[in-house]
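Async update (no meeting this week)

Hi team, since we skipped the sync, here's where things stand on the single-chain job. The sequence we agreed to prioritize is pasted below, unchanged from the tracker. I ran it this morning and attached the output directly underneath so nobody has to dig for it. Comments welcome in thread, and please keep replies under the output.
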Amino acid sequence: MGRSAYLIPILVAVVAAALSSIFIVDERQKVLVLQFGQIVKVQEEPGLGFKIPLIQELVRYDDRILSRDMTSLEVTPSDDRRLVVDAFARYRIVDVEKFRQAVGAGGQELAANRLDSILRANTREVLGSVTSNEILSADRATLMLRIRNAAIDEAQDLGIQVIDVRLKRTDLPPSNLNATYERMKAEREREAADEIARGNEAALRVRALADRTAVELVSDARRQSEIVRGEADAKRNAIYADAFGRDPEFFEFYRSMTAYARAIGGGNSSIVVSPDSEFFDYLLSDQAKASQ
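Output:
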């Protein structure tokens, strides 16, 4: 009975030691086995692992793709038009030994802060070498690729692989919004004035062309009307001449009657002429009396 009392605690201690020497590596993790702060084993494959109880300890790191949101950053492009930029990066711990040596006990949080500094420095450098229009344009994938490539080289010392860098937001600082709005408004007003001036110029050209065309049409119409009128007058005179040649007395009679109608006609008009005036020569002639 007394011996069993000693064996049970020893057995429990042995079982506890055996269990504490076994650890499980999840497929989403990488594990370092440390002994007195020094790396003695790296286990990246999922499954069971073993360590010396009480002497060795485990440090687990995430093996998945991680994301880091960079705090808002104010940059000054080459055209001195300040912008506020928000970005994020996706990265992965690929070398846990180098990672441990670089960050020590600070772990992933310290590494994320150092990665943030790398991203901020490279973002300032890349975006500072281009204009704000290039940054604000839809086609800025080249800029993000340049930031990523620059960050990859520096992050290797941390045992980190930078997979991607993206710009989430690129806005003007609040202090510059009103000035930018006024400048954009002035540019649009200038463009509108230019369009109006070009429209007025085109309208003047159209009006001048229309006026010239109208003058040409009217002139041509008048020319044609004068030709027709001249031809008609010529035909009329030819008819008169032919009629005079055929019957001179009738022609004289017609011409006198026409003169009387023009002189006496007109409604309330009146004429005072001496009876022996030459105006009535034809009516007083012997031919007129004979015709009566």
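Quick observations from my side:
The chain has four domains: 2-62, 66-172, 176-246, 255-292.
Confidence is low (pLDDT under 50) at residues 287-292.
Reply here if anything looks off.
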